[in-house]
Amino acid sequence: MKRYGFNEITLMQYITIIHGGQVGVGLLTLPREMAKTAGTDGWMAIVLGWAIAVTTSLCIVAVMRRYPDDTILDLIRRLFGKWAGRAAAVIWLAYFVAAFAAVLATSVSITKVWVLSQTPAYMTVLLFLLPTVMVARSGIRILGRYAELVFYCSLAAPLFLIAPLKDSHLVHILPLIKGEWAGVLQAVKLTAPSFLGFEVGFFLYPFLLRKERAYTGVVIANTLSMIVFMLVIFSSNLFYSPDQIAEFTWPTLSLLKVIEFHFLERFDIVFLAFYLFLLSTTWTPLLMLAGHCASRLTGQADHAPHVYAIAGTIFAVSVFYFPAVKGLRLMEQLWSRSGLVLAYVTPFALLLVLAVTDLIRKKRRTEGRQCG
């Protein structure tokens, strides 16, 4: 009997959860960061970052398919024992809570600057938390349906980035390859955090209905994210000069300010309101998986009480303290640096452990046959 049979997700839901986790707040600042580091060669860093993310994602699937009904917490417990499993649950819990707080706080900060400048931060946090908790408490299947719905509703969003290109200048990106490889390689360090989100595959794999298609799923999810990043990078580089783009905090939103209709002037505000749905597909899985890790620590089957507790704690903190720009950057750095270890190093380390374990078992079987 399947352990998670009542909560299975389809391949499309698997793809959209991973893709939604990757296309988050980094999409708004990525053009500026790429321009500062690699100039107009930033698109090459995106391609290299995609290749690394796809390779790591395939490694995650290779690890998880060995024990298809286990999450990474079950796998570590199986390989290293009970206390190692509990330690892993604590580490992943801390990571998901930190990531959730960082993404939520950044989204609230952007909303305050562009839309709700007079609204207290804790009220905006509460407005974001209410629907998030409703989805996060309901399980992976509901999350998958929500992520898939938001994905289909957002298919027209790239057209908004194409609209400003009527005032673009091709000379801004020429020559297409300048050969500044040192800057490109340095920019790869910035693209790696932007692709974070595929690590949820460690927890989604047991819920996937057709696990043999997991390899295809992670490639499609990462490729969709790469296409979005490339579109944003090229649109920004074509519209802004290399010197201009570094002056904007959120160049993607500033790019949309030039779009005007006879009945609507501030189209960027409308787009931001819509983009919050996309951002919610980034922070909602983080809250759900944080609740899952907490439930594993306490031995409870239901993760919903822990979702309430984590969301309530974050709201209570926001009433008394909300980070400024410097604090937000520290939160994002903490999340990205810990993500680089957990997402990019852990899969290869586990794959190596499984390979060594197989060799030891094979050697023991061979010795047993010889002795027999």
Automatic annotation (TrEMBL):
InterPro entries xrefs: Spore_GerAB
Gene3D superfamilies: Amino acid/polyamine transporter I
TM region positions: 12-30, 42-63, 83-108, 120-137, 149-165, 185-207, 214-234, 269-291, 303-322, 342-360
Keyword terms, alphabetized: Germination, Membrane, Transmembrane, Transmembrane helix, Transport
Membrane topology: Multi-pass membrane protein
Entry GO terms, CC: membrane
Subcellular location: Membrane
Any one of the GO BP annotations: spore germination
Sequence similarity: Belongs to the amino acid-polyamine-organocation (APC) superfamily. Spore germination protein (SGP) (TC 2.A.3.9) family.
Listed name of the protein: Endospore germination permease
Source organism (scientific name): Paenibacillus oceani
